[in-house]
Amino acid sequence: MPPVKPLLSPSPERSAVMRAVKSHGTGPELKVRALLHAIAPGYRLNRADLPGKPDIVYGQRKLAIFVHGCFWHGHDCPRGARPPKDNADYWRAKIARNRVRDASTLAALAAMGWRVVTIYECELKDSAVLRRRLGAELA
User: pTM, whole model, 2 decimals?
Assistant: First the structure.
């Protein structure tokens, strides 16, 4: 059996780049919010009292919306399935932890009676399809 390599932390330079990645108010999130504002304004952002702190929340409708980056959440599209080049073991483990956390968040919200919509970054390419999907969820 080959020796197991320990997971290395990212380099200081890579850590600085990763720290600069925003978690709120990202470009994809702003695009989804613009679509939602035209369909059904009146949402709240990042409600900390809900599991996973959803990006967008319609409280009376009990609808939580998450806007995920394909790479970071291991989506099955070409961008999400792209293997990391540097420190691959570390990033694969990180993405796997994100997926486990996402699944537990969805289960916790469902147990509380909330509906959840997850929108991946790649879905923003066709805004007409996304607008119809969001409209159906909000109807």
Answer: 0.81
Q: State the Cα–Cα distance between residues 11 and 4, nearest whole angstrom.
A: 20
Q: What DSSP assignment string belongs to 67-95?
A: EE-TTTTT-SSTTTTPPPSSSHHHHHHHH
Pair 112, 64: CB distance under 8 Å:
no
Sign, CA torsion 49/31/136/101: negative
CB 137 within 8 A of CB 63: yes
The CATH number that domain 22-138 falls under is: 3.40.960.10
CA 113-123-112 angle, to 5 degrees, is: 10
Task: Give the tens place of pLDDT for each residue, 101-128.
Answer: 999 999 999 999 999 999 999 999 999 9
- Which residues, including other chains, have CB under 8 Å from residue 111's CB and lie 6 or more apart? none
